Amino acid sequence: MPTTPLQGHAVVVGAGLAGLRGAEAMRAAGFDGPLTILGDEPYRPYDRPPLSKHVLTGHLPADVTQLPSSLGDGVAWRLGVAATGLDRDRRIVRLADGGTLSYDALLIASGTRARPWVHDDEGRLPGVFSIRGRDDAAALRTALAAGPRHVAVIGAGFIGCEVAAVCRDLGLPVSLIDPSPSPLSRVIGRTVGDPIGEVHRSRGVDLRMNCEADRLEASDGRFSGVLLKDGTRIAADIAVVALGAVRNTEWLEGSGLSADAGGVDCDEHGFVIDGRGRPDPFIAAAGDVARFPHPLYGGRRVALEHWGHAVAQAEHVGRLLAGEDRGLPYAAVPNFWSTQGDMVVKSVGLTEGADAVAIVHGDPKERRFVAVYGRAGRCIAAVAVDSARWLPAYSRLIETAAPFPPDAPALDRPRKSLDIRDPGFA
């Protein structure tokens, strides 16, 4: 790999958090050449976490979420134009407006978009919303402020739970629909998902777990209700489809890079790899779209949709493209948080693949606790519900792959009384 400082033109595809922080890292590492940031939305980079919380409650207008930046005037912004193709031989990015951008270094940070409802015609009905961008949140805020009679949220992942909590904050009746046995159980298992579900139920959320939405029905051309697969109908005048995200990799088709719907593959440093597993020294990727081997998880390739990860990885590969950190792999411990009403859920590590979970602080019945996840006798993740101050101790255990169940100084219960069982991932 080249170790000389970056010369020529740097292009960033993706005007989001990862794209912005990656560009800033290039500048901080000494790159002072021409820099272009390309984004398919007409806005400068903005913060997404407030969209499903503060913007929906009306506490924060969608148009004041722009991220602060250290970038000065020496940046060319190409906004409202999507990338449609990549020619690596000629080092050219093709654009939706028919133009092209040549590059000497390329940062792929094209992110994700909301996964649409399975039936396109139903998903386009007035009254059906999703949340990914600023305009999505602004439109849904307007609809919620109008006082709908009932809101149906389809999908009990983090976004779905946050939206349901916002509806209750606004005093709106809401149903939360998911085929899993409890909210978030596909991500954090039932040991933690069940008590989180009880918190939502106690706040008045109509939980419809073990239920799958089949159709979105209409009356007079507008959304009017959700038909479940068991034949039950939930009348509602707003639907929020929260079925996860789709990674924006279609524009890389034909480029020779190893990329699919799960992300664009990178090596351990952050350079993207081609179909033969060879790294391209002129292209790196960061954020939601990047799939990379994580050393804490046996080199298993992961793609993460976490705010902190987008920042850390983007800063790493920005330095990488600028000519620094060429010998250092990316190994930051994943971390994530979610605010649902007055409940805060925070996590470190990755729960995927866990074969056991231990409640190490607090009590799920009191809805304040910490759970640590294990795999093959090692600590791999921890989740805190309204108990985040304990999390750093377990982050260190995860970083070192400490034995599971944990025997940490911060443990507030005897080792023999730990509640250890299958997390029940759906």
UniProtKB/TrEMBL annotation:
The cross-references to InterPro entries, in alphabetical order and at most eight, read: FAD-oxidoreductase/Apoptosis, FAD/NAD-bd_sf, FAD/NAD-binding_dom, FAD/NAD-linked_Rdtase_dimer_sf, Reductase_C
- Domain (Reductase C-terminal) ranges: 336-408
SUPFAM superfamilies listed in its UniProt record? FAD/NAD(P)-binding domain (SSF51905), FAD/NAD-linked reductases, dimerisation (C-terminal) domain (SSF55424)
Where is composition skewed (Basic and acidic residues) in this entry?
A: 410-426
**Matching Pfam families, A to Z?**
Pyr_redox_2, Reductase_C
Top-level taxon in the UniProt lineage? Bacteria
Residue numbers spanned by region Disordered = 405-426
The residue ranges of the FAD/NAD(P)-binding domain are 10-314
Q: Which UniProt keywords apply?
A: FAD, Flavoprotein, Oxidoreductase
Establish whether keyword Oxidoreductase is in the entry.
yes
Protein's UniProt keywords contain Nucleus: no
Q: Which cofactor does it need?
A: FAD
Name-wise, this protein is: NADPH-dependent 2,4-dienoyl-CoA reductase/sulfur reductase-like enzyme
